UniProtKB/TrEMBL annotation:
PANTHER family: PROTECTION OF TELOMERES 1, PROTECTION OF TELOMERES PROTEIN 1. The gene is POT1. Residues 75-219 form the Protection of telomeres protein 1 C-terminal insertion domain. InterPro entries: POT1, POT1_C_insert. GO terms for biological process: regulation of telomere maintenance via telomerase; telomere capping. It comes from Aptenodytes patagonicus (King penguin). This is Protection of telomeres protein 1. The lineage of its organism: Eukaryota, Metazoa, Chordata, Craniata, Vertebrata. GO terms for cellular component: nuclear telomere cap complex.
Length: 244
């Protein structure tokens, strides 16, 4: 795996870190005194790399404002879901022209009210693997159960006159085991009824980019970032890896 490979690179006395076989080796001291951008071939030792744990290399990046942020963990999402469950689903928002609603009360002590809204196409429900649904009042465990069966899950809450997305610290969409987040700075969330325009399409595909667009969300992309410190006896150079 990559972690053990990086450790081996640190242990080797010299490691070829870039290819460019047509170029001669250049000392790091020369590179540090040169102006960018230029292309070099180096021989150097990997002194350190960050982060030490590979999962910490995954960040969320906004291509619009160029911001980077940590990927929220499941506890953050669970906390937001619990907060939204305090407000009971508004029955007046159930069973519209573009979605069918089901509501029930849990049998536990809290007796939570949960509502699921199944988006229709041509006034019919689609097959589960093609269905987008919205859930109110669910726990993290319940949300993940739904993502295993249905194509797309959007956590929502009720207002007086419409359903709305949760705080953008939570994912605006879950598809399989992927959580899609929006940029708080660049997004202007729209009411959930904006999704009805996709439901009206001839063959709704429920693509995350299209869902984000109609909901006024600037999507964040998962990126892989690492920092390497390279040495060759003449100087030390920091090299950064950034990739989608």
């Amino acid at each position: 795996d990559l972690e053990s490979h990086l450790r081996r690179c640190q242990q080797l006395s010299v490691t070829v870190l870039t290819d460019h076989q047509d170029l001669n080796n250049t000392e790091l001291k020369t590179i540090l005194n040169s102006t960018a951008p230029q292309q070099y071939r180096i021989r150097a030792k990997l002194r350190t790399y960050k982060p030490q744990k590979l999962y910490q290399s995954i960040k969320l990046h906004c291509s619009k404002c160029n911001s980077l942020q940590e990927v929220p963990d499941g506890d953050d999402f669970d906390f937001i879901l619990q907060g939204s469950a305090v407000t009971a689903p508004n029955p007046e928002l159930h069973n519209t022209s573009w979605y069918d609603s089901v509501m029930w009360t849990t049998q536990d002590q809290k007796q939570r009210k949960i509502a699921i809204h199944f988006v229709k196409h041509d006034e019919m429900l689609q097959q589960p693997e093609d269905t987008l649904l919205m859930i109110e009042g669910g726990t993290l465990k319940e949300v993940w159960k739904l993502t295993k069966r249905f194509k797309c899950v959007i956590p929502v809450r009720s207002t007086e006159d419409d359903l709305e997305l949760l705080d953008l610290s939570a994912p605006f969409l879950l598809q399989g085991n992927i959580k899609y987040y929006g940029c708080k700075q660049c997004s202007t969330p729209k009411p959930v009824k904006s999704l009805s325009s996709i439901a009206a399409e001839q063959r709704p595909s429920w693509e995350p980019t299209e869902i984000a667009q109609v909901l006024g969300i600037e999507p964040l992309q998962y990126v892989f970032i690492m920092k390497f410190t390279l040495v060759d006896g003449t100087g030390a150079l920091n090299a950064y890896l950034f990739d989608y």
